[in-house]
Design a protein that fits this description.
By secondary structure, this protein is an alpha+beta fold. It has 8 helices and 24 strands.
Length: 392
């Protein structure tokens, strides 16, 4: 007979390893190239000692002259807060009772819930990896003041079922916290939500930004945060430490995105920093454009098999991958050895005071279980990465 105890044991003993493996190895091809570590985690923070520049104790002189003054590597401490990553499942009491005498039915129920959690978590983690840490999904351009339809700038980061918050600047729009996306019209950049829009909302709609529920300014430090040119990163001001600024090439209208331009940029990053790139990621559209250009030049298109079952093009031995979450017109040139996901622990179930995993949802006949991971993405050499923009 299925009981709450057997249900919790199944979540802990049968499903946790499966979920962790899926999220750690199947989420995203770039995510797979980045190692995870519990080092440099102190309480709620990541504090990473990072060298920059070169050792100062070198020089040349006379045979009998004074030796160069010793002067080791300069160091700085990168500091960032561990981000709280959550994923929840909800099982109704009715469903549990209905399958209490049928273990097979209950396993099917749990499996369906876990598969949904995995897919939602993969989507969210993949999106965060390319974000700027603010959690912004897209901006609103207009809204239907008689229905539930919102027109947005881009639907790339949106998916059916996602719970979102609507903000006007730094203020949560009253009544629009935790609304759910019912459908996404990707052709016309529209979404339908589960709340009726009024004239007040519609009037100010163009000032609104969408975020994942409860996530504003709470997400990991993704690539767009690393490639910002102003402000701070890991607690350090870019204006004080200009070597934190990455190389960014904005393509002019007279230039063509081809293998020559890409190689020029790779060479420029290496010339400036000595860093050799080992991974290139761009949009799926630009990956297809690049492949077409190679085909037009009757060149053989090499591919590489990557961890997690992913396949990428090969450009001079460097994997070139297309990802749906990369911003339009952007290509990143990275050395993934410079990135580490620092974590307090791997994925775990959030437990209640009595050690149980499932907890009744207050005021509802259903039970919740929450998966949690405390982690932060840190790039030890942000200035040694490259980005191309305005590509077509």
């Amino acid at each position: 007979m299925v009981t709450m105890t057997t249900a919790q044991n199944a979540l802990k003993d049968l499903y946790l390893d499966v979920v962790s493996n899926q999220l750690n190895t199947k989420t995203n091809v770039l995510f797979n190239q980045i190692k995870s570590s519990t080092s440099d985690v102190y309480g709620r923070e990541v504090q990473k000692l990072v060298p920059y520049g070169v050792n100062g104790g070198v020089g040349a002189g006379d045979e009998g002259g004074v030796l160069p003054t010793s002067n080791g590597n300069p160091y700085l401490v990168f500091t960032s807060t561990l981000k709280n990553l959550f994923g929840s499942i909800e099982i109704s009491d009715k469903a549990i009772r209905a399958s209490s005498d049928d273990a097979g039915a209950f396993v099917s129920l749990l499996t369906a819930e876990m598969e949904g959690l995995i897919e939602a978590s993969k989507f969210n983690l993949g999106r965060m990896l390319y974000g700027d840490g603010t959690g912004a999904l897209t901006t609103v351009t207009s809204a239907d003041d008689t229905g539930q339809t919102i027109t947005v700038t881009s639907t790339t980061n949106l998916i059916e079922g996602l719970m979102i918050d609507v903000y006007n600047g730094s203020t949560l729009v009253t009544g629009f916290g935790g609304v759910r996306i019912k459908s996404v019209d990707r052709t016309n950049s529209k979404i339908t939500i589960d709340k009726t829009i009024d004239s007040t909302f519609a009037t100010s709609a163009s000032s609104y930004t969408l975020y994942v529920q409860g996530s504003k300014d709470q997400e990991i430090t993704g690539l767009e945060a690393i490639f910002k040119t102003t402000g701070t990163i890991y607690g350090l001001d870019r204006s004080t430490y200009p070597w934190l600024n990455s190389y960014i090439k904005t393509k002019s209208s007279s230039e063509t995105f081809d293998e020559d331009l890409l190689q020029q940029c790779l060479d420029e990053v290496e010339k400036r920093t000595g860093n050799k790139m080992n991974f290139i990621v761009t949009t799926n559209a630009l990956k297809r454009t690049f492949a077409s250009k190679l085909s037009a030049m009757t060149k053989h298109i090499d591919t590489q098999n990557l961890n997690g079952g992913f396949k990428a093009l090969s450009f001079n031995g460097i994997p070139l991958y297309g990802d749906k979450f990369v911003p339009s017109g952007v290509l990143y040139m990275l050395n993934t050895n410079d990135f580490v996901t620092h974590q307090l622990c791997d994925w775990e179930w959030l437990t209640n005071e009595d050690g149980s995993i499932l907890k009744q949802k207050q005021g509802y006949a259903s039970y919740l279980a929450t998966l949690v991971k405390y982690a932060e993405l840190v790039c030890s050499r942000p200035g040694a990465q490259g980005k191309m923009a305005s590509l077509s």
